[in-house]
Amino acid sequence: MKKIREDFLWGGSSSAFQIEGGWNEDGKEPSVQDTKKDIPEGTTDFKIASDHYHHWKEDVAMMVEMGFKSYRFSIAWTRVWSYEKNQPNQKGLEFYHNLIDELLKHKIEPIVTMYHFDLPDYLQQKGGWLSRNTIDEFAKYTKLLMENYGAKVKYWLTINEQNIMALASGAVEGGKPRSTKDIYQCNHHMFLAQAKAMKIIHQMSKAKVGPAPNITAIYPNSNTPEDNLAAITFTNIRNWYYLDVPVFGKYNVIAMDMLNKLDSMIDIQDGDMDIINDPLAKPDFIGFNYYATGTVKQTDPNKNYVSKFSGQVDQQTGFGLQDFFEQVQNPNLPKTQFNWEIDPVGFKNTMLEMTSRYNLPLLLTENGIGGYDELDANNQVDDQYRIDYYTAHLKQMLEAIAMGVDLIGYNPWTAIDLVSTHEGIRKRYGFVFVNRTDEDLKDLKRYPKKSFYWYKEVIKTNGKNI
Ligand code: BG6
User: Fold this and answer.
1) Nearest 5 degrees, angle CA 315-CA 321-CA 327?
2) Which residues, 6+ apart, have CB-to-CB distance to 236 below 8 Å?
3) Where are the alpha helices (DSSP H) in 245-343?
4) pLDDT band at residue 312 using 50, 70 and 90 as cut-offs
5) Which residues lie below 8 Å from residue 223, measured CB to CB, with a gap of 6+?
6) What are the phi and psi torsion angles at 425 (to 5°)?
7) How far is the CA of 203 from the centre of ligand 1 (A)?
8) What distance in Å separates the CA atoms of residue 223 and residue 217, rounded to the nearest whole number?
9) Which among 28, 14, 22 has a CA at the least distance from the CA of 72?
10) Which of 29, 309, 377, 450, CA to CA, is 20 to 30 A from 247?
11) ipTM rounded to 2 decimals
12) Got the DSSP string for 132-150?
């Protein structure tokens, strides 16, 4: 029976726009998250977030106290490169040098996401991912990162949740809906950008690199062959599409069939597949985010399905695609306070499916539970529900490892509280409470939650206390 590795990367995760704040400080330029106009009512925007830009040192100190072996965060492209001046932004580069150096000083391995939903608005105005120019800009950005951090950072993640960006694109690009054809053309360009980035990383450093899609096992709602077909279809469109391209270098037939039937076939130019198939452009591991499984059934010909391809939706919002699948709730699963299903066994199922399909090391880059947390009179936060969620998932993780899954690390969402993608800071995920609300910035002080002490023990015992 395989055991958890001694060098297992126990850590936590975050993303630049959700944690940093300082949105226009020291030469940072706006990303699509800063120019977004449709912030849901009653929730905060990302201008101050958890103010990590000014609290990063004490935040790292909290991670050190928890015993983190790794910290997965993203670099804001708009902080390190100025499109206005067409040159690197030294102050922005310095910020991440300081953060990385502080982590390394405490033997915390930085795991860096290059791009987490925050495309420079400058590029968006020039067509965003629909323009092939963005592919070249991403390659240029990769070189800048390698020149600066290539010798310090051993683990890189290219694009966070490319699949959710395609499925819920409107939410990421400031609510501006694109046609299905354009969305999948953007998606193709992201695959090319990712392949070029992987090659550059392999050429310019000894680091390892992987994608970071949101992967989750898909269940059929019943044992009818039709529901099973819907599940096979959805898992290919939602999951394998995003791993088959970088790992196998090809588009799977089910994804292609969908594009064909939706009259949305992408334009693959001569040489594109060579870029994707370059031996240096292959991932060393698969980074993946897991929250909960999905359940689908065959579609009803008399129903009108609202496509998820544009709008304010998240990865758990059910949607349907006529003749392909309809996402439904799974009555066997409990739900979080924010109505997301909870499926620890599904976590194991997901890892087993990925391992048998790709046989690559896996790195968990997100898993977690959003809930309403409050400070009590003694400045403590009793988030036992979070401990229960993690305990259940870690039990399954240990079983998956025992069965042979090569998992190299677990970096749950999130290290400290930050702003949810579209539900404000009221939906908290952290081991550390940040004292602010959506309406009131308060003092932004940091307080360890109950889960902080629990996770510290998990890391200290390398999971033996689970
Ligand atoms: C993932 C994203 O989809 O899920 C994160 O990578 C996000 O950016 C997380 O915050 C949780 O989703 P939400 O909608 O609750 O913020």
Assistant:
1) 45
2) 252, 254, 255
3) 253-261, 272-277
4) very low
5) none
6) -85, -5
7) 32
8) 16
9) 14
10) 309
11) 0.99
12) THHHHHHHHHHHHHHHHHT
Residue type, 277: N
Catalytic pick from 20, 102, 366, 457?
Answer: 366
Domain regions of the chain by residue span = 9-293+334-460
Does this model's pTM top 0.95? My answer is yes
Distance 91 CA to ligand 1 centre (A): 28
Q: Which atom of ligand 1 is the closest one to the Cα of 418?
A: 10
- CA distance linking residue 382 with residue 373, whole number of Å: 8
Q: Which atom of ligand 1 is nearest to the CA of 421?
A: 16
In ligand 1, the atom with minimum distance to the C-alpha of 15 is 8
Q: Which residue has the tokens 């908290």?
A: 428
Concatenate the DSSP letters of all residues of 48-93 into one string. Answer: STT-HHHHHHHHHHHHHHHT-SEEEEE--HHHHEETTTTEE-HHHH
Which residue is listed with tokens 């046609």? 179
Superfamily of domain 9-293+334-460: Glycosidases (3.20.20.80)
Q: How far apart are CA 383 and CA 356, in angstroms?
A: 35
The residues lining ligand 1, judged by C-beta closer than 6 Å to any ligand atom, are 15, 18, 160-161, 164, 214, 289, 314-315, 366, 370, 413, 420-423, 427
CA-nearest residue for atom 14, ligand 1, is 421
Of all protein residues, the one whose alpha carbon is nearest to atom 5 of ligand 1 is 421
What count of Cα atoms within 13 Å lies in the side-chain half-sphere of residue 175?
10
CA distance 159 to 322: 29
Residue pair 153/160 in contact (Cβ under 8 Å)? The answer is: no
User: Distance (Å, rounded) from C-alpha 379 to C-alpha 437?
Assistant: 15
- Answer yes or no: 366 catalytic: yes
Measured distance CA(202)–CA(206) in Å, rounded? 6
Give Cβ neighbours of residue 234 (< 8 Å, ≥ 6 apart). Answer: 218, 294, 296, 324, 325, 327
pLDDT tens by residue, 43-94: 999 999 999 999 999 999 999 999 999 999 999 999 999 999 999 999 999 9
User: What whole-number distance in Å separates Cα of residue 122 and Cα of residue 199?
Assistant: 25
